[in-house]
Amino acid sequence: MQIRQPIRNIQDFLLSTYFADGLRITIGVLLPSLILAQFGMLKYGMNLSLGALCVSVVDSPGPMVHRRNAMLITTALIFTFSIITGLTNKNHYFIGFLLAISSFVFSMFYIYGIRAASVGTAVLLIMVLSIDDVRPWQEVLLYAVLILAGSLWYTGLSYFVYRLRPFRLVQQSLSDSILEVAEFLREKAKFYHHNNNYEKTYSDLLQLQVSVHEKQDAVRELLFRTREIVRDSTPEGRFLLLVFVDMVDLFEQVMSTYYNYQQLHDQFDKAGILSDYEMAIKRISYALDDIAFALKSGGTPVVSKRLLIEIERLKIKINDLEKNNQNQEYNTLGIIALKNIEVNIENILARVKTIFSYFKIRNSKDIRQAEVDTEKFITRQKFDFKLFTENLTYTSSTFRHSLRVTVVMLLGFVVAQILNFSHSYWILLTILVISKPGFSLTKERNYQRLIGTTVGAFIGMGVITYIHDRNTLFVILLICMIGCYSFQRKNYVVSVLFMTPYILILFDFLGMGSIALARERIYDTFIGSGIALLASYSLFPTWEHEKLKEAMLDILKANKAYYEQVIRLYFEKNYNRTEYKLARKEVYVSTANLASLFQRMFSEPKSKQLFIKEVHQFTALSHLLSSYVATLSLYNKEHQFIFESFEALKPIANNTNYLLDTSIDNLEQGNSTIDNVPLIRLNDNGLAIKKGEDLVPEQFDLIQKVAYDIYKLSVKIKL
């Protein structure tokens, strides 16, 4: 069995967007202070670094035009607010009022998306760091100009790095999304493992599906909004687009098959063939790992001979099993299922080989253009004031979040003034980074912050106490900075764990480091965390069950639209590839949204976990439905049929649509009675003209039965 070596894992990380971000931010923040320190102007350098740090908050992966615009808007806002805060912070009442108003307005930026929300966070960050910094107005203006210069320096650095290698971020993001698909495959391979925990594997698969969607969506945004790629002007752009389109199709192939694995184990465990399926699927996942690594490293992957041998061995074994089944030792349907899985594995392998072949013509001008209407796959975010005013209502979760942040920031400010610690702004900083729109997210970030800060403080105290060599301390500071900024999107606990020693060592360099400082940081973090967590529970709370109804309706509508596109493959000769792919994308989006929402519900108080059992069943059935529909879709593409022969299946297809429509109505209107909706039975007349076509009616029937189960469940859930 191949095991991914630790060296490959380290290489993957060093070539990832996370490490690239960490290096860029570290250079952007550290360099101004280092250079000016050589001329005895460290104080000015620190101000420049602060400007760079605030702007780096909004410089998350995405299309460069969005990043650039966000950084320039942030630069203007933090320059303005550093002046306003610096000129008014002598009056505690006024600055408290300004903090409250700003907290509300900038927290409302969540309605415009995550990047806009991070713009608001950056502005509040400069305010919090400037609140206790009382100085003459001339120095305030100089401070603001230095903040402006630091912001522009970082914006210029980020843009320069992008122009240096414009495709680098797309390569890294695409690589990360392929690694997630490989992980999904490895998890799915567990279904073929003896004595597997199916419930846990299924739950893990749903979580991985959320990750796959998030990563693919990030790549989609980057690819379809990057001018060089959309214009189709370079071989590299066409290559990346081809790989991405094929990977989305491959993921559909991976999603398609769903069997009763318990029955397969009951029948075939004694034959020992299921372990071969597990190994074959794992080998394909390792091939995807190689593709992902080649994308980041610039290499050319080669299809492993062991993979080809494994697939060939599997084909031979299943054929032998069928030949030797003269005494009907194994169920015929079970053998058909195994053969279908094996065919699906071969089809996945064929797609993997196609992606491998793209690397050989990566730099060739002859590389073909991917057929995709990019405009239809990107979501436009409106930035109009009307959206802001429409959300100024208590029914809006963003409005409640903004009210909550306003109150807790004001409360934190009052507590900080009463305690009068030397760095009391840490309380406000903690509240700012922990406060999230939902209780579950706030709770999760709270624990991560507390664990990271506490452990990091002890590490920092150990470093300051036992290491006195300035050069060694600087190297540790550098490592901690890179670690902090590299993990801030990947693993927040690790990020904070690096952040605390980095801050303590930094203060030590400034002649302010001590054990008391570490102790104070822990105190401030616990105070800020406590205020934020209590507020998220008791102050204008937002619970996940409030969004359940909308999420469930979205997934039903998406599955119905996807099903309608697929049955057109059987009943109509006209087929719109773009509409089909859009419908498929919406299924992935809505499935990921519902799965992540369901997981967040588990971290909420028991009293807020409404219909948890029914919602779990609904999520499972929805996933099953989309898997069966994907199987029906792929079966059509992989076989040549006469479309007219499927007319007899129309009643089943229509009834499935009716069941899904009724389920949508039940959820919307809260119907509490089950109407007598019959299941349409299979009629074999006119079907199965060609050998193997009998699987198509069976698939239509399976989809109808799942739709019927969803219909019955929709009556039980009252939201």
How many beta-strand segments? 0
State the low-pLDDT regions, or none: 684-693
- Share in helix: over 70%
Largest sheet: none
Number of helices: 27
Secondary structure class reads: mainly alpha
Give the SSE string: HHHHHHHHHHHHHHHHHHHHHHHHHHH
> Radius of gyration over alpha carbons?
29 Å
| Percent of sequence in beta strands | under 5%
Global mean pLDDT? 86
Question: How far is the N terminus from the C terminus?
Answer: 48 Å
> Shape from CA axes?
globular
Would you spell out the secondary-structure blueprint of this structure?
Layout: H1 6-14, H2 17-37, H3 42-56, H4 64-88, H5 92-107, H6 114-130, H7 137-164, H8 168-189, H9 198-225, H10 227-230, H11 235-256, H12 261-268, H13 274-297, H14 305-323, H15 332-360, H16 385-390, H17 397-419, H18 425-434, H19 439-466, H20 470-487, H21 492-509, H22 515-538, H23 545-571, H24 577-601, H25 612-637, H26 650-669, H27 695-716
Helix pairs in contact: 2-3, 2-7, 2-20, 3-4, 3-6, 3-7, 4-6, 4-7, 5-6, 5-17, 6-18, 8-9, 8-11, 8-13, 9-11, 9-24, 11-15, 11-25, 13-14, 13-15, 14-15, 17-18, 17-22, 18-22, 19-21, 19-22, 20-21, 23-24, 23-25, 23-26, 24-25, 25-27, 26-27
Keywords:
single chain, 719 residues, mainly alpha, 74% helix, 0% strand
In a nutshell, what does this entry contain?
The chain has about 725 residues and is mainly alpha-helical. It is built from 27 helices and no strands.
Structural write-up:
The structure is a single chain. With 719 residues, the protein is mainly α. It has 27 helices and no strands. The chain has helices at 6-14, 17-37, 42-56, 64-88, 92-107, 114-130, 137-164, 168-189, 198-225, 227-230, 235-256, 261-268, 274-297, 305-323, 332-360, 385-390, 397-419, 425-434, 439-466, 470-487, 492-509, 515-538, 545-571, 577-601, 612-637, 650-669, 695-716. Mean pLDDT is 86; it is low at 684-693.
